[in-house]
């Protein structure tokens, strides 16, 4: 017993322990591989079908509107049925709505389907983020969420390449997306995993989320406006500057590839310096890269791809940085409610992002999408710098193990039994 406990303690001191969330990460990889393909596929297919820019931006905004609605009502579902069943149920819903897109190729129908898909993804993302936060301590939260971001963006980037395996006008790619989303259920339900133990979740009002961390609240909203515009209109931007299908997938993959490269370093940095400084630096760098994208619309493709990679690499991780900042001082019972509030604010921003970005494209031209994003991200950087450096919570040095009730509770019991037995012998 003593040797086993010493081994556990030694393993925990070495760094992050990912085994408890390994199945979750596999499921997220399959899920976002499909969703990454679907988001780009729908915009390209809509362009081929002759949908107007207004219809396309509205269609993508409906996705984020469903996402926002999900953030309002889904936490109580997670509490009542658990993380695994929530993820599996909404994955099934997302798989069904994917196939319905090829049955009703019409803007109004696609808006309704995107609304339902956004609702489903809100449930899955809320479940995964609250699950991950339950496995993190303050000293490693940024890193763990960054690993999640690396898996997410890596899968999303690979999903862009799948756009080239069949014609967007055919049913094949929609079937591939449905299969990938269905496959996401397998690891989380059949492989050994450690979902968070059931804990009572306190209701957290939106105003309390803002009071807990004003920068995180404003940050996820502004990042939602900026990055949501890209999610909704990025493929249309690439289409309007004359890129073909392979060029569109390359541009989207470059943005996500930059995120894959920089997500972990930014999370690692945010665990070692003020999270305000990390957020400000990422926002400022992404704003500069967005301006470069807007200016590179007539430049050679490699320059456009490089600027896009920096825009995504610094901009997309901002949500994870804000989430980590908000969760640093929260008790376990308030994390799900806080995650819901931040997801709601981010969802409102991402719902409005495609509409604002689409309007900027109509007024300024295709580059207006990224000039608008640059202005929003620069505003966030100014706010983060103005907030100064908050007092960091006490560093958790006893262990770097994931703080999972069902795991740490077992460890505590083992240690207590050992100490009691040693006391009895003395």
Describe this structure in words.
By secondary structure, the chain is mainly alpha-helical. The protein has a single domain (20-194, 201-394), classed as MFS general substrate transporter like domains (Growth Hormone, Chain: A). Helices cover 77% and strands 0% of the residues. The protein is built from 18 helices and no strands. The longest helix has 30 residues, at 335-364. 56% of the residues are buried.
CATH architectural category: Up-down Bundle
Biggest sheet overview:
none
Which residue ranges are poorly predicted, with pLDDT under 50 across at least 5 consecutive positions?
1-16, 391-426
Mean model confidence by pLDDT = 78
Give the CATH topology: Growth Hormone, Chain: A
Query: Topology as H/E string?
Result: HHHHHHHHHHHHHHHHHH
Name of the CATH superfamily:
MFS general substrate transporter like domains
Oligomer: single chain
Helix content: over 70%
Radius of gyration, rounded? 22 Å
| Secondary structure: number of strands | 0
| General form | globular
CATH top level is Mainly Alpha
Helix/strand class: mainly alpha
Distance between the termini: 18 Å
Domain unit count? 1
What fraction strand?
under 5%
Total helices: the number is 18
